[in-house]
Write a structure and sequence with these properties.
Oligomer: single chain
Distance between the termini: 33 Å
Largest sheet: 2 strands, antiparallel
CATH architecture: Up-down Bundle
Order of helices and strands: HHHEEHHH
CATH class: Mainly Alpha
CATH superfamily: dinb family like domain
Structural class: mainly alpha
Low-confidence stretches: none
Strand order of the largest sheet: 1-2
CATH topology: Four Helix Bundle (Hemerythrin (Met), subunit A)
Number of strands: 2
Length: 190
């Protein structure tokens, strides 16, 4: 990944703030609802994203990751806290240096930051759509997200994380183009 931390850092912060706001407005009756990420209900996606962001914060701080399945269930309020903690952890310049443990193992720290951003963008948008909220990010953050999604798309499709690309007009906002590249339909409506 060649996305500089000076670009990733503000994008992670903006998306983490958006996710925290969305999480704060998720209602209990929405937790069993469908999401654009077909393998997850709202509750399951809150849990997945919260645990991923906990792991991302540890990766930024260069801390060891716990054994798989060691985390406890994440509530929407917990997700808001996890998003904020991940943003703070990735606000340190040293977080982007060297290697770190994240997901499947050790990787370059700047790549772990890129994965953190794509998780925030894609799953933040998923949660917003599933709960009738908006996921508004600046054009600059949309552009950074598109670059990250395009860089990881082939690998993500091969491991089943992304679906087949969804055609999106070339003049669509970068966020919509990132969604399409990840296999999401920007017009998803439940």
């Amino acid at each position: 990944m060649n996305t500089p931390h000076s670009t990733l850092q503000p994008a992670i912060r903006e998306c983490a703030d958006a996710v925290a706001l969305i999480a704060a407005h998720i209602q209990d009756e929405q937790l069993q609802g469908r999401t654009p990420c077909e393998k997850f209900t709202v509750a399951e996606l809150v849990d997945h994203l919260g645990l991923t962001l906990q792991s991302a914060a540890r990766a930024a701080r260069k801390e060891a990751q716990p054994a798989a399945g060691a985390g406890s269930a994440v509530s929407p309020q917990d997700l808001a806290d996890c998003a904020s903690l991940a943003a703070v952890a990735w606000s340190e310049g040293a977080a982007y240096e060297g290697t770190t443990e994240f997901g499947p193992g050790e990787m370059p720290a700047d790549f772990a930051a890129s994965i953190t951003l794509q998780e925030l963008v894609l799953h933040g948008w998923d949660l917003a759509r599933a709960t009738g909220q908006s996921f508004g990010v600046s054009e600059g953050t949309g552009q950074v997200a598109l670059g990250v999604v395009e860089q990881v798309a082939e690998r993500a499709r091969n491991n089943g994380s992304y679906g087949a690309p969804v055609p999106v007009p070339d003049d669509a906002p970068d966020l919509h183009r990132a969604l399409g590249a990840s296999g999401r339909n920007p017009g998803w409506n439940g």
